[in-house]
Amino acid sequence: MKHYAPWEKAFERISTPFENFIHAQTTSGLVLIFVTILALLFANTPLVEFYTHLIHTNITFNVGDWKISHSIQHWINDGLMAIFFFMVGLEIKREVLIGELSTLKVATLPILSAIGGMVLPALIYLSINEGTPSANGWGIPMATDIAFAISALVLLGNRVSPALVTFLVALAIVDDLGAVLVIALFYTNEINILALFLSGLSFITMIALNRFGIRAILPYFIVGLSLWFFMLESGIHATIAGVLAAMTIPSKAKLAPLTFTHSIKNLLDEYDNYPIATDNTIHDKQKAILRNIQDKIDAVGSPATKLERELHLPVSLLVIPIFALCNAGITIDLSSLDSTLNSPTALGVIFGLVFGKVLGIAGVAWLAIKLKIATLPTNSTMKQIFGVAFLGGIGFTMSIFVADLAFVGNETLIYQAKISILLASLTSGLIGYFWLKLTPSAA
After folding, report:
1. Cα 374 to the chain's mean position, in Å?
2. Comparing C-alpha atoms, which of 259, 204, 240, 248 is closest to residue 93?
3. Is the pTM of this model over 0.85?
4. Closest Cα to residue 152, out of 379, 361, 389?
5. Domain 6-188+237-252+302-438 classified CATH 1.20.1530.10?
């Protein structure tokens, strides 16, 4: 008898790219909980010296006179996380082309709600921190951690409609796009014009590869690597290269679906014309037909779809957890915790994520529905939207990422931000989960 964990049972019949994406994010959320606890244990036990030494160990690459050297934590935040942002870019592209953001009717509510959920938390943070050294952290409470938020919804099973899950995914994707733009426009220091020009040239080259019909992944990988390197040297955060690279990956199938169907039927008929051997071996011609079928299957998909499918689990189970392991390890000083949580930074983050997200997402959603600009997701209620808005207050991965960019070199502000991110994300997640669990479904 086959046994399922709760999140697996809910999606046991899943096969579409969107639903596979949900499954991967759910798995990532559960792994993140474990890794975050592990990082906190490392940072608050005698292992803290080993942990700190490890993440700050320098790794250097030399090619002749050229040298690049960064700490392990820096390589993870600027290098490994570029893969995560590449995934984000693929998800944004899919949603815009064929997903929940491809039709205005469906996309209006999550887009407007996401904008409200970004703007209001930032304004709340600024109202508390205006004129202080921590004012630059206004981007921290704008973010939503898609993995944790979706995990909470999926674990609720039939208590939430599929349309509500779709609403949260679309909202989080728009939120991710907003975070990318904020990082690119507002958390960039000095610009190296030559490096920026070369990164632009790399990006144009990748677009040209797409336009000339190149579908092999290797050329995109090679040029994408140069795009990442030049972006790193330009002063703009290198992870932006991941999003830009994703936009150039071909998304159209080489073979039309109807042509694929006819071709496969003909090939299978031809395959069946050969007699079955007594030892179940197949004829050489049948092997050739099977290879032809595989080629047709590859042609009816797209490189973007293939990459997104193949990267989901590595990103969910390796990239994001490694980032969390290196960045969520906060040594908590209980004697100063009260003053830390009462600092302008912490108050801005907590009020922004816990209250700003709810008022921004649910408030804008309510207004858009009342003005008949948008409609509620199928089989959902406004009370459930309110619960989802609380889940939007789980900032975690992206909030920690922005905190490191906003307060470079200021360990005190980074500490205050990370403590408040953990507390606010936990509070928002628990309130959202139990709110939705206790709210009757519309169906």
Report:
1. 25
2. 248
3. no
4. 389
5. yes
